[in-house]
Amino acid sequence: MKPRELIDTAQIPGGDELRLFRRGADFMIVLDRNELMSSRMSGSEEALATMTCDRLGRRRAPHMLIGGYGMGFTLRAALEKLDKQARVTVAELVPEIIEWARGPMAALTAGCLDDPRVTLCARDVAMVIAEGEGIYDAILLDVDNGPDGLVRLANDRLYTLSGLASAKAALKPGGVLAIWSAGSDATFTRRLGSAGFSVEEVAVKARSNGKGPRHVIWFAIKK
Questions:
Q1: Which residue of 42, 148, 160, 186 shows the fewest CB atoms closer than 10 Å?
Q2: How far apart are CA 121 and CA 90, in angstroms?
Q3: Which residues touch 92 (CB under 8 Å, ≥6 apart)?
Q4: Which tens digit of pLDDT belongs to each residue from 111-121?
Q5: What percent of the chain has pLDDT over 90?
Q6: Is 203 helix (H, G, I), strand (E, B) or coil?
Q7: Residue 8 burial (CB < 10 Å; 0-12/13-18/19+)?
């Protein structure tokens, strides 16, 4: 097996250092010893978008907020499903993530950041959510390994009752809050219900071919 080649590093505001590696045609974004993202595993990130779009049904010109660009799997999958009048706001706090998307991972990005439906916002998604009032049809969060603030402790506020109330306020009636996680969390599932959402927890495979480890997506619908 070819050794990993370190391409670049990035400092997470209020957090640790991210490292971008390449092995052959594959890319990995690593935090400490944790492989946060890999171009070999896109299935659950794509499902975050496609399954959310399925739950939106036939809404015309929906406005979607995606928290965390990552490697763009969720954004590309959303653009494939959404109509031409849709709007997608992408909030990405780490500027190097976008630089990597336009640089060494440009082939993987496939021009999705230049889609006219996309607005890129270089800010903390929690702040973007807090400024919204009934404006989003869906909010998709993939900014951590789940509701535990592994990447950045400040991410914890997204998953508190206060953070969930903020997300609920930013959604239109019937809007979807979709949250990706590396694993299940019964306490968080109950918290979503306590926040007034109708909650569905779905297990999905990490790879698009249905293989690999199991991840979890919560779909919380604003009643």
A1: 186
A2: 6
A3: 68, 69, 98, 120, 121, 122
A4: 999 999 999 99
A5: 82
A6: strand
A7: middle
CA–CA dist 221, 202 (Å, integer): 14
- How big is the chain by its Cα radius of gyration, in Å? 16
Q: What is the mean pLDDT of the chain?
A: 93
Mark 91-101 as b/e (b = at least 16 C-beta within 10 Å): bbbbebbbebb
Q: 107: helix, coil or strand?
A: helix
Q: What is the residue whose two structure tokens read 């009048």? A: 85
- Residue 151's pLDDT band (boundaries 50, 70, 90)? very low
For 133, the 3-state DSSP assignment is coil
Helices (H), the chain: 43-56, 73-81, 95-102, 106-109, 125-130, 161-170, 186-194
Q: What tokens were used for 6?
A: 């370190």
State both tokens at 148: 């535990």
CB-based contacts of 111, cutoff 8 Å, min separation 6: none
Q: Give the C-alpha separation, 137 to 65, whole Å.
A: 8
User: Each residue of 12-27: pLDDT tens digit?
Assistant: 987 789 999 999 999 9
Q: Does domain 41-222 have CATH number 3.30.10.20?
A: no
User: Global pTM?
Assistant: 0.94
Order of strands, sheet of 26-31, starting from the edge strand that comes earlier in the sequence: 5-11, 17-23, 26-31, 34-38
Tokens matching residue 39: 């171009």
